[in-house]
Design brief:
alpha+beta; Sulfite Oxidase, Chain A, domain 2; Immunoglobulin-like; 5-stranded mixed beta sheet; about 20% strand; globular; binds the ligand Nc1nc2c(c(=O)[nH]1)N[C@H]1C(S)=C(S)[C@@H](COP(=O)(O)O)O[C@H]1N2; binds molybdenum atom; sulfite oxidase activity; heme binding; transmembrane
Length: about 525
């Protein structure tokens, strides 16, 4: 390849476009190949996954606080923006010195290749998408550069420009089409989704008590006492949802046990199942936040499986691991006491949705999700807190995470304007596995008034509450606090979500007219 003697700004623009076009075709082809051979080896997913695991915890905490369950879209957008910048730069550098830009793009492909290979559960073709990306980017860039710097005097200038435009847009179009086909293919090969759809879960041997009629206050704007699967918050580090065929799934219980136990899907389903409503909460839930939900879970007590393995009395923790490498450290007593920590297979009457841990996850009443609720769980290692640590503990969060006593105002919403006269204040309160005994509300710092509590489903679930209020015009501050069944009053002391959960009173300002 020849190197241009002079560079004009038009040259620079064309080179940047060539870099971009080469990158688009590389990404498109690689994502298409990934969709066919191994969806979770998608370069976007594996690089994003590495970024999630390597990111400093403040960045992750900020992402969850800022974007909530949209954190993954934010990350993918961020990667795309950086990629566009690098692609343009690679094009410009390549035009200055042949080989430099293609080396950069080739290195990106190599990065995707390595990231795919070191991911837990990497399949036999995990390296292929990265390789395709690297090779396609280098070849495309080198070819496109020829149209940026054509052999002089061969053609008229406008013809050269046409040729350049044709090749760059054509190449990029191939990439976009490949990307679309890949995405469609990923959707079409929903084999796991169809396996899930055809599954029939066994009936529980121990059914959950019916939801009490008075558990639901039926107030517009108040969260329902049972959260539908489609509305259930989702928090995890998985950019691509693990797709596990139940036929390939097994759980291995090992570590400080008398005998290792391996249980398959069929063996698990043959065991007597239990059903229970349990409210799951995220440690990243801010005061007043919505990273919390309540579902009816179907599963088998973890306690029974641990008993089968025979737990060493010196052990004090179970490190659960998911197929994608996430880990959680759960105190052993929370898995063996009477709270019925479940190895869950069903959620609200359906098999677990893929993004909520299909086929099997843990659900432990009273603990935040990050120390207990491992989705796509494949291993339980019986160990000790002084011997092993879990994913979020290594990133600055507390090694233990009991749920804190909390309450929240859902109605009226913050900043809303309501009419003077009869109004209703309503919300939710929870302290799983302890239970809520009451909720108090005060307006403008006045006297605390006892709210009416709905009938709780159980101590393991949140509970609705309401209070009638004759609202006078002006602006008002509403606050609430919960009282636990063991005599604790929710603290006013504010605390951030790090390291072990937010606390303080939820405060809502409304204007009445
Ligand atoms: N495999 C895996 N399991 C996981 C996580 C994860 O990142 N990976 N996140 C945990 C956290 S922090 C929470 S709050 C709950 C959320 O469960 P949900 O997404 O079903 O609501 O899952 C837990 N289980
Ligand atoms: Mo969480």
């Amino acid at each position: 390849m020849t190197t241009a003697a002079t560079t004009t700004s038009g040259d620079r623009l064309r080179s940047a476009a060539a870099g971009l076009s080469a990158t688009v075709v590389a990404v498109g082809l690689a994502e298409l190949v990934a969709a066919v051979v191994e969806p979770s080896a998608s370069p976007f997913a594996v690089i994003g996954g590495q970024l999630i695991d390597l990111a400093p915890s403040w960045a992750k905490d900020a992402a969850i606080a800022l974007f909530g369950t949209g954190d993954k879209i934010a990350l993918i957008t961020g990667i795309a923006v950086v990629l566009v910048a690098v692609a343009a730069l690679a094009g410009i550098l390549e035009s200055r010195r042949a080989g430099v830009g293609s080396a950069i793009l080739g290195a990106l492909g190599a990065l995707a290749l390595v990231a795919a290979l070191i991911r837990p559960g990497a399949g036999p073709f995990a390296w292929l998408p990265g390789l395709v990306a690297g090779v396609a980017a280098v070849v495309a860039l080198r070819l496109l550069m020829r149209t940026v710097h054509p052999v002089p005097y061969l053609r008229a200038e406008h013809e050269e420009r046409r040729r350049f435009l044709l090749w760059t847009t054509g190449t990029a179009a191939v990439g976009v089409v490949a990307l679309l086909v890949g995405t469609a293919a990923r959707g079409a090969t929903r084999s796991i989704e169809s396996v899930r759809a055809l599954l029939r879960l066994p009936k529980p041997v121990v059914g959950a008590p019916a939801v009490p009629v008075c558990a639901e206050l039926d107030i517009q704007g108040l969260a329902g006492v049972v959260t539908p699967n489609s509305a259930f918050y989702r928090i995890d580090t998985a950019l691509i949802v693990p797709r596990i065929d139940p036929a390939d799934w097994s759980l291995r219980i090992h570590g400080m046990v008398e005998r290792e136990v391996v249980i398959t899907w069929d063996e698990l389903l043959a065991l007597p199942m239990q059903e229970a409503h349990v409210t799951l909460a995220c440690v990243s839930n801010q005061v007043g936040g919505d990273l919390i939900g309540n579902a009816l879970w179907l599963g088998y007590p973890v306690r029974e499986l641990l008993a089968r393995a025979g737990v060493d009395p010196d052990a004090d923790m179970v490190l659960s691991t998911s197929s994608d490498g996430f880990t959680a450290s759960t105190p052993i007593e929370a898995l063996t006491d009477d709270r019925d920590a479940l190895l869950a297979v069903g959620m609200n009457g359906d098999p677990l949705p893929l993004e909520h841990g299909f086929p099997v996850r843990m659900v432990v009443p009273g603990l935040y999700g990050y120390v207990s609720a491992t989705k796509w769980v494949t291993q339980l290692e019986v160990t000790r807190f002084d011997r092993a640590s879990a994913y979020w503990t290594d990133r600055g969060w507390s090694e233990r995470g009991p749920v804190k006593l909390q309450s929240r105002i859902d109605v009226p919403r913050r900043g809303t304007r309501i009419d003077a006269g009869d109004a209703v204040i309503a919300g939710m309160a929870w302290q799983q596995h302890v239970g809520v005994e009451g909720v108090e509300v005060r307006i403008d710092g006045g006297a605390w008034r006892r709210a009416e509590l709905a009938t709780p489903i159980s101590v393991d679930t949140w509970v609705q509450w309401r209070l009638d209020w004759s609202a006078e015009s002006g602006s008002h501050t509403i606050e609430c606090r919960a009282l636990s069944a063991d005599g604790e009053t929710q603290t006013s002391d504010p605390a951030d979500v790090v390291p072990d959960g937010a606390q303080g009173w939820h405060r809502v300002e409304v204007s009445v007219s």
